[in-house]
Amino acid sequence: MIASLPFLVGIAAAAVVNLESRQTAAQITTVDLSVNTGSPIRRASGVLYGVPDTKNQIPSSFYTGAQFTGATGWIFGGYTARFQDVLSNFQTARQFNAQFILKMSDLWGTDGTQGANGVYPGANGDFTEFDAYLAQLVADLKANGMTTNIKLLIWNEPNLTAFWNAPQAQYFAMWNHAVQFLRAHLPGVPIAGPALATAPNSADTWWTGFLSNVKSANTAPDVYTWHHEGSSKRREQRPPDKPACNVIDEYANVGEQNPSSAAWWIARFERFNMSGLRGNWLSGANLQDFLSGLLWKSGSTYFANGEWQVYNYYATSMTGFRVATTGSTDRLMDNFAVVGTNIVRILVGGRLVTGTYTLQIKNLSALGLATSGTINVTTRQFSFAGTEGQEGAPSNLGVVAHTYTGNVLSFPIFQTDTVTTWAFEFNF
Ligand SMILES: *[C@@H]1O[C@H](CO)[C@@H](O)[C@H](O)[C@H]1NC(C)=O
Ligand SMILES: *[C@@H]1O[C@H](CO)[C@@H](O)[C@H](O)[C@H]1NC(C)=O
Ligand SMILES: *[C@@H]1O[C@H](CO)[C@@H](O)[C@H](O)[C@H]1NC(C)=O
Ligand SMILES: *[C@@H]1O[C@H](CO)[C@@H](O)[C@H](O)[C@H]1NC(C)=O
């Protein structure tokens, strides 16, 4: 979904002091250092569009760790030019060893701007034009070496008339037709879908219809995707089969594009081993620029905003192995934690919440530390001055010595505004 961009202003005012507090589970987010959950995979570092068609327009230093999606026009006679845009974006993604998600419906021409001139494959059971498109696309993908590092997303948000203004049954028939064509002509290239505008829900006929259709036609996607941008709180439903390779291909509504919410989403994508592309709330030409709201520019010079600094820390500092975490039971505070070489890094994030929470770090002995003592914790603050506000590296708020007993270290997180967030680090 695309909307105009309201400006958010963050007020960064928080202090971390050596204060032991007692709180209910509703406000505790935990780390268990004894449970290794594997390598960080930067699953949340995807962007929807956000990449200019002009190569190197955004300096490469801003891309690290991201994934990209491509642009759109068969039905308007603009296929060739738009395929070149896709190819350019794919090459940018490959330069950074990122996975590329090709939105086939955009290249067909139904990217939401088609209006009443939209053409939807399979009307009256006729797939002639669609087959010509699929054959051209398959040939172009093969000719340009685009059969690895790519996922083919067949149709974006078919449950919205802005993207699919034809009967639901025609969508299911189109899906089956496309999957059978692609499996026959591009075996092994993963197919993604259904990219519905809603999370899986047993009361939603698009989901139930989709699942029963792919079951009976044997056309299940390799990667299930959907969008999660509503105002409702987090859900953990997922469709059956292949649970380890789901993609939320648009995440975070516009108000959640700030450092704290970004960290909250990162924590959850990492915990559930799911991948996500950030939603893009810019409009017009800006859609294909600014890495989906992580950058802005002054003249022609790009700069990073405070949220980019979170993704940069996530991609470049949070190395080593992941450890198990839990979010607060009110589901509004969470953390992502890694153990690197002699250092633990914990990125906390709240979902548009203020209040005092507790970070509880369990099983310190798993790192060879004593079960009681003192640990010097460094705090780094990620501030936010809005999407168009430049921010440098997180500020170092200094070291606080925390005493602990019982193999558990706890200290408070003072979430005094809804956008600022923190990373805590300690050596062992
Ligand atoms: C995510 O993957 C890790 C590593 O394979 C595993 O330990 C963990 O249980 C997985 N999490 C979920 C929720 O499946
Ligand atoms: C599709 O999903 C959107 C987003 O949740 C919802 O508002 C809309 O009602 C759905 N449309 C249909 C036709 O089910
Ligand atoms: C980790 O900590 C929890 C809670 O403090 C404890 O129940 C559990 O036994 C510990 N695990 C290990 C492997 O020590
Ligand atoms: C914590 O920092 C203090 C002050 O720099 C230092 O004296 C102390 O040895 C440190 N403690 C640990 C456990 O590293």
From TrEMBL:
<dbReference type="InterPro" id="IPR017853">
    <property type="entry name" value="GH"/>
</dbReference>
<feature type="signal peptide">
    <location>
        <begin position="1"/>
        <end position="26"/>
    </location>
</feature>
<keyword id="KW-0378">Hydrolase</keyword>
<protein>
    <submittedName>
        <fullName>Glycoside hydrolase family 39 protein</fullName>
    </submittedName>
</protein>
<keyword id="KW-0732">Signal</keyword>
<dbReference type="GO" id="GO:0016787">
    <property type="term" value="F:hydrolase activity"/>
</dbReference>
